[in-house]
Amino acid sequence: MIIHEKSSNQVAIISIEGEVDLYNAKELKDILDDKMRKHIYEIVVNLEKVPFMDSSGIGTLVTAMYKLKKYHGNLKICSVHGSVAKVFKLTGMESHLEVFDSEENAVLALVKERESIE
């Protein structure tokens, strides 16, 4: 698994390449926790290049989203496809995690949420 980080409109964007499973989900958790330690509470996770994600990966994302909400932040997911999309549907995660078709739309949703609060 390779993780790329960037930002847009003060939103952290984490793009993942490769499988997310029990063996490497902690690496993703550590990066998300590090963002929160740095007071970055708006995060988009791009799964465009993730061919497989097991329940530990999904659990990491859901846990991060609930932690971010404690700080009035949020986590959005984008570019989910193939077997990852099936896992999201089968586990009902789409009702917990907001999934967007593109990185741009996920960032825009976070910016709109921020502006509605301010």
- Estimate what percentage of residues fall within beta strands: 25-35%
Task: Calculate the terminal CA-CA distance, rounded to whole Å.
Answer: 37 Å
CA-based gyration radius: 13 Å
> Mind summarizing the main beta sheet?
5 strands, mixed
Helix amount, in percent?
Answer: 40-55%
Q: SSE order, as H and E? A: EEHEHEHEH
What is the mean pLDDT?
93
Please tally the helical runs, counting DSSP H or I stretches of 4 or more residues. Answer: 4
Number of strands: 5
Order of strands, widest sheet: 1-2-3-4-5
Low-confidence stretches: none
Inertia-based shape: globular
- Structural class label: alpha/beta
Describe this structure in words.
Strands 1-2-3-4-5 form a five-stranded mixed beta sheet, with helices on both faces. About 30% of the residues are buried. The chain is globular, with a radius of gyration of 13 Å. The protein is about 45% helix and about 25% strand. It has helices at about 25-35, 55-70, 80-90, 105-115; strands at about 1-10, 10-15, 40-50, 75-80, 100. The chain contains four helices and five strands. The protein is an alpha/beta fold.
Brief sketch in words of this structure:
The protein has 118 residues and is α/β, with parallel strands linked by helices.
